[in-house]
Design brief:
Blueprint lengths: L3 H24 L9 H33 L3 H22 L10 H17 L2 H11 L5 H13 L2 H24 L1 H11 L3 H17 L10 H4 L2 H9 L1
Helix pairs in contact: 1-6, 1-7, 1-8, 2-5, 2-6, 2-7, 3-6, 3-9, 4-5, 6-7, 7-8
Length: about 240
């Protein structure tokens, strides 16, 4: 598995979200202050987030596996890459913004409402549950990570992809909880880089789906197809 892509996505995702997630992290405090809260709070919160990402990876990795077994992985990968290109080029050409997250505004509002209710208790279990819900919040870079999980074409590889993404988001978000103004500054500067990242990943997905035989960038169809299918093909 390519570990570099989810790690880069995670780092950029945390940089993009530092200004937004920072205040939530600062607001999270255990009701009892005698259990090393400085350690317990981030461990509980971010453990919940990473677990949610891993579950998403299993689900979408399963979807990718289904597409792979059906012989549709190439077309699905090309389609995902094309959607990434459209999300970047459409606003430039037509001067209108595409907000995928906006399609899930109602879902996000419900999650935020539940997290606020849980934050009232300020217990260890509530912090963990807040992390679980936070990991389900719609975000552009989370969608890119999900696309990577689908493209993996494997359940456990998809889960591992999302776990690496989640872990990579933790360090900078911890910094944001300590220094919110710094987090806001980094977040504003990073937003300009996100479209370029999406553009590059979109092209990479398209090249990968085309199976041009280029190592790492565009593997051949024999490398993408399941071994079972290859063996059946040889037998027939």
């Amino acid at each position: 598995m390519d570990f570099i892509t989810p790690i880069i996505l995670g780092i950029l995702g945390s940089m993009h979200s530092m200004g937004m997630c920072g205040p939530d992290g600062v607001a999270l405090r255990l009701k009892k202050q005698n259990l090393l809260p400085k350690i317990a709070v981030p461990v509980l919160f971010h453990s919940g987030r990473v677990i949610s990402y891993s579950i998403l990876g299993i689900f979408f990795g399963m979807l990718g596996r289904g597409l792979r077994l059906a012989g549709l992985q190439q077309w699905a990968t090309i389609l995902l890459g094309s959607a990434m290109l459209v999300s970047v080029l459409y606003p430039v050409i037509f001067r209108e913004q595409i907000s995928i997250s906006g399609l899930f505004s109602g879902f996000s509002a419900r999650l935020n409402f539940r997290m606020k209710r849980l934050s009232v208790n300020r217990t260890g279990f509530s912090l963990f549950r807040i992390g679980l819900l936070n990991g389900l919040l719609p975000c552009g870079l989370v969608f890119l990570a999900i696309a990577g999980a689908i493209s993996s074409g494997n359940v456990w590889t998809g889960s591992l992809f999302m776990v690496c993404f989640g872990i990579a988001t933790i360090p900078l978000l911890l910094v944001a909880t300590r220094n919110h103004s710094f987090g806001q500054t980094i977040s504003l500067k990073t937003r300009r880089l996100v479209p370029f990242l999406v553009l590059m990943l979109g092209l990479l997905f398209i090249f990968r789906g085309m199976s041009l035989g280029i190592p790492f960038v565009s593997p051949s169809i024999e490398q993408l197809a399941p071994k079972v299918m290859i063996e059946k093909g040889r037998c027939c």
